[in-house]
Amino acid sequence: MKKIGVVITDGVGFRNFVLSDFLIKSQEQFEEVIVFSCLPESVYQNLNFKVKIVELEVFEESFYTWFFRKAKELAHLQKHKKDNFGITDNLNANYSKAKTPRGWTTRFLFPITSICNSENWILRWEKWQQLTFAKKNITKKYRKILKDFGPDVLFFTHQRPPFIAPLIHAAQKQKIKTASFIFSWDNLASKGRMAGSFDHYLVWSELMKKELLHFYTSIKENQVGVVGTPQFEPYILNRYGLDKLTFCSKFNLDLNKKTILFSCGDVSTSPNDTRYIEAIAEIIADGKLDEEVNFLVRTSPAETPERFNELAVKYPWISWNYPKWTQARSNHQENWSQRIPTVEDVSDLKSVLQYCDLCVNMLSTMSLDAMLFDKPVINTVFGNGINGLVNDQRFLNYAHIKKVLDSGAVTIAENEEELISAINQCLFTPDYKLNEQKGLLELQIGKPLEQTSKRIAQALRNC
Q: Where are the alpha helices (DSSP H) in 179-243?
C-alpha cells in the first residue's frame, strides 16, 4: 500500500474532493492519506475524516516569478490561437494598457511570445520560472514537508493555480510522482497554461483527453486517465439534499407553481446577469408566460451578493439562494480561491437543481448540472457589443460552447422575445431536448456519476 498526498487548492476543490466520497475511497486504496491544504486547517474541523491535514504556507509570487509565468502563459496562447476563438479572446484579454511595471512588461512580452512559443520554448519559460523560486525559503519548506511525510504520489486537485508551482517543483526534486486533475470543462480549450508539468493527468472524458494531448504535445497518451469528475458526485449521495416541502419553505416558494432558476456567474465572467434577472422578472410581472411561476436566483459562490441588492429591493418577490460559502482567508493572491462551501450549501444546490423546472444561465457549467436532473436549459446571451451590454455573444464561438450548440441540448436566447418563447416552450414540454442533453453529458462527462471517487482513487493507486 502507498501513501498519497492530496493538494486541495481552493474552495471548489474542497467541494469536489473533500465533500464528495473521494477521501473515503482514497483510504480504501492507500495506507495513508495526507491532505496538503492551501486553505486554513480550520476549515476541516467539523469533518470526520481520519486523514492528516497539513496547512501549507501561502506562496506569493515575486515579480521575476510572475514574469516567466506570464511569458509561459502568453506563449501557450500564442501557439494555439490559430482557428481557436476562445484562446484568441483570452490572449487579447491579457493585453494590458496599464501604465505599471506589469502592464509595460506584458506589452513587452507579446511580440516575444509571438515568436518564442513552441512547446520547447514553453517548457523553457517554465524552467526559468522554477529557477526564480527554487531556492526560496518556502520551496525549501515544501521539500522538507514532503520529505517528512513521504507520499508516493502527490495529487493536485487543480492544475492551474500559480501558487502551486513551487510545490510541484518540490515534489519533482524529491522524486515524488505527481498527478493532476483537469479542473473544468473549459480549462483546456480556452484557458492559459498549467502551473507546471505533472507525471499523470486525470480528465473527465475522452473529449478532454483529446484536448489535453492536442494542447500539450509533450504529454504522452499513457500519462492520461479518463475518470469522470467528482464535481457532480454529491448529486447522487444520499447525505445531501432536502425534501421538497422543506426546500420550498426555506426559499419561500409556492409548492404548487413551477420554478424558474437563474444561475449567476461571477461579475468578471457574467457581468450581464443583472440584466437577465430583471428581464425574467419583468416577463413574469407583465404576465407574458403561459402560467404563474416561482423565480429563484442562485448567485455565484465566487462573489458576495452586493451587486444584486437593487434587484432584491425592486422585486421583493424574487427568491434568492446566496451560496453559503465562507471567506477562510483574506489577503491571498487569489482571494476567491479562499471561499469555502458548507455542507448546507451542497444540499441547497442539489435541491435547487432537483426541484426547479427550468435552468437559465449565461453559458455556465451549471447547464450540465441541470441536465443531470433532466431539466431544460436556456442560455441567455443578449450582449452583442453594440447594445450597451458586455458582448457575451462572443462566447458562442468558444470551442467548448460550440460543442454545446452543435449538440442541440440547450436553447439560446439572444433577446427578450426569444427568452419568452423559450421559457414557455420549456415549461410546456420540458423533455423536448432530453435525448440531446443525454448525448452532451456523455460527451462532456464521459463516465457515470456512480463510483467516480473510487475510479479516481484507483487511477491514482496505479500511478
A: 187-190, 206-215
How far is the C-alpha of 239 from the C-alpha of 351, rounded, in Å?
12
CA–CA gap between residue 156 and residue 147 (Å, rounded): 17
Residue in the block written with cell 501561502: 58
The pLDDT tens digits for 368-414 are: 999 999 999 999 999 999 999 999 999 999 999 999 999 999 999 99
Q: Measure the CA–CA gap between 184 and 366, rounded to whole angstroms.
A: 12
Residue 75: what residue type? A
Site of grid cell 498526498? 5
Please answer whether residues 379 and 362 qualify as being in contact, where contact means their C-beta atoms are separated by less than 8 angstroms: yes
CB-based burial, 307-346: b 16+ in 10 Å, e otherwise: ebeebeeebeebbbbbbbbeebbeebeeebbbbbbbeebb
Spatial distance between the Cα atoms of 180 and 164, rounded to a whole number of angstroms: 11
> Is residue 302 classed as helix, strand or coil in its secondary structure?
coil
3 state SS of 194: coil
Which amino acid is present at 389?
L
Alpha carbon distance, N-terminus to C-terminus of the chain? 12
C-alpha cell at 334: 487569489
Can you tell me the distance from the alpha carbon of 150 to that of 82, in angstroms, rounded to the nearest whole number? 43
Contacts of 452 (CB under 8 A, 6+ apart): 20, 21, 227, 228, 229, 230, 232, 233
The model's pLDDT over 125-180, given as tens digits with 9 standing for 90+, comes to 999 999 999 999 999 999 999 999 999 999 999 999 999 999 999 999 999 999 99
Q: Which sign, positive or negative, has the C-alpha torsion 398, 188, 459, 342?
A: negative
Question: How far are the Cα atoms of 115, 390, 436 from residue 84, in angstroms, in the given order?
Answer: 18, 21, 25
Spatial distance between the Cα atoms of 224 and 181, rounded to a whole number of angstroms: 10
Give the whole-angstrom CA distance, residue 123 versus residue 116: 11
Contact by Cβ (8 Å): 138, 130 = no
For residue 151, what are the CA distances in angstroms to 5, 34, 348?
A: 6, 8, 36
Are the CB atoms for 227 and 447 separated by under 8 Å?
Answer: yes
DSSP 25-90: HHHHH-SEEEEEESS-GGGGTT----SEEEEPPPP---HHHHHHHHHHHHHHHHHH-TT-HHHHHH
Angle at 336 between CA 334 and CA 342, to 5 degrees: 140
